[in-house]
Amino acid sequence: MNVPTREVDTGSEPGPAPAPGSPDEPHPAAPDDAAGPASSGTGRLPRRPRRGRWGRRAVTAAVTLTMMAYPFLLTDPRSPLANAGEPAYIRLYSNGIGLGPDGAPELVATGSTPPYLAGSRVLDPGPDDPAAQAEARALAAETQAWLDAGTIPGEGGPYGDMVRDALLDIRALLLDDGASVAGWSARWRYVWPRDAAFVAAALATTGHTEEALDVLGFLRRVQHRDGSFEARYLPDGSGPPDDRGIQTDGTGWVLWATDNVVRQLDPGDQADAVRRLRPLVDRSTARALELTDRRGTLPPPSSDYWEVGESRVTLGTAAPLLSGLEAAGRLYGVLAAGGTPTAAADAARAAEATAERAAQLRAAIEREFAPRFARYTDGRERDAASAFLLPPFQPTPLTGALDAWRASAAEMARPAGGLAPGAGWKDDGISWTPQTSLYALTAATVGDTDAARGWLTWIDSHRTPSGAIPEKVLADGSPAAVAPLSWSAASVVLAVAELERHGV
């Protein structure tokens, strides 16, 4: 693992997005009277109305606003201009990630074959530097020992190699302070609470519970006192890299992950783990209760995994909060089973309060989003948040949610075989592995093994030459954008573990 750094090597990182081409200039206005002026009866032409300065200013303002809005219309996934139906091209930013002899991550350039030492992401420094060679081999042996200390779901089966590579990438992206960065390309070298939550769950599921607790410990340290989370954080924990602001789903995801990690521990160790994370649990639970303590119970609007501003509540915000409240009830239940009588009684009351609010929020989601369970309560276009209404995110599927989830998969299908983030996402032909692996996880958990294997096989066949899972796959099947991506890697690990648990 690696010392976090804020210095960014942008050698393999894409530069700023090119400015969109200027729109065609408007056609000049026709003359006021194309047929010529009518006679006034005096032999003089009638005076043409003068355009005042306010008219000119109005035209200038309209043109300025149009030019300002043009990039938004092209790039926002909800824009009609972004849904032109033309396949998009995004290059692959890197072949994968490697570790130097000192454990520092570095990007593997596209088109190159990474000289990994066997069973690791450690790069072979070559024979010219014996000291570096010795350090690299020691680090590779440490990596192998780490793998051996846990499990590799699917080992020996069709997905064993993919899961092994996913775990190696997750570990390479995990820094010594518990910061689990989304990727190593510059614009992904941050910690998203959502992505880190999935990583913690994957680490715990494969027996690496101490590292999972470290990831949650990082989130505990950066969390605001009111229980909220920024959309993303610098890996040194000093704060957010920008002004994206609070993203509500992080609160729910962190509680869900904490419950997942705790349940992987021996029963005798669970209460101690919850106490270790008690500030994180208490603040997150209080935040979830506050957000849902309102008429109708649904939380206020917030950006979600689409990462765009919202003026309406989305299923992608409400469903993770429900997951978090359900998880909080179980976590307080662990504390209620032990400790002093007073502490146990307090925990029991907290468990009861969160369970009651979870039931209210569940009913509100069923009331406002059913039967289609679309992105918004208008019931129009579904998105991948449909999966958040099913196990492993909820103890049982919400009424009607299983059918809605199955329908959403067909609506989100892309030409290359994967899924888009939603049916209303821009129609550019690109498949996203975070959502495809998410659906593989949900399918495996609910027992739809054929669908789970289909999506996992597709992901496996679209990895980069180094074995990394890319964020995107183009319409022609080419891997694209950042690789590896920790969220996708974690979801693949969890999905294969679920298949294994079901005996598949």
From TrEMBL:
PANTHER family: GLUCAN 1,4-ALPHA-GLUCOSIDASE (PTHR31616:SF13), TREHALASE (PTHR31616). It comes from the Bacteria. This is Glycoside hydrolase family 15. Keywords: Hydrolase. Residues 1-55 are annotated as: Disordered. Residues 31-44 have a biased composition (Low complexity). One of its GO terms (biological process) is carbohydrate metabolic process.
